[in-house]
């Protein structure tokens, strides 16, 4: 099992999760984070740190978010690791309530 970042993170991109990851499994894109499934050790620490509830165990990803399992794996190979907390975007609070954000994902 591994953990997966889902749609709620798009344009919110809080990085609290990065700070607690013991294996530096997070990768950073322009407006989204992903977890590298090769680095994730299933420790669950990141789940509680996410203020928008975007992180799930791969077995628990909601049906309408299942495409994010493959997306995390693909983007983790393209994006660089993020190992320190950065400020969230100024409008993260507004985006936290938006649904259907996949079209806003920047690669």
Provide an overview of this structure.
This protein has 107 residues and is of the alpha+beta class. The chain is built from four helices and five strands; from the N terminus they run E-H-E-E-H-E-H-E-H. The protein has helices at 16-20, 45-49, 67-78, 92-95, and strands at residues 3-5, 26-28, 33-35, 55-57, 80-81. Strands 3-2-5 form a three-stranded antiparallel β-sheet, with helices on one face. The N and C termini lie far apart (25 Å).
So what's the overall shape? globular
Structural class: alpha+beta
As a whole number of angstroms, the C-alpha radius of gyration is 12 Å
Largest sheet: 3 strands, antiparallel
Helix content: 10-25%
| Number of extended strands | 5
Mean pLDDT comes to 97
Distance between the termini: 25 Å
Q: Provide the low-confidence segments as ranges.
A: none
Encode the helix/strand succession as letters: EHEEHEHEH
Strand content: 5-15%
Count of individual helical segments: 4
Spatial ordering of strands, largest sheet: 3-2-5
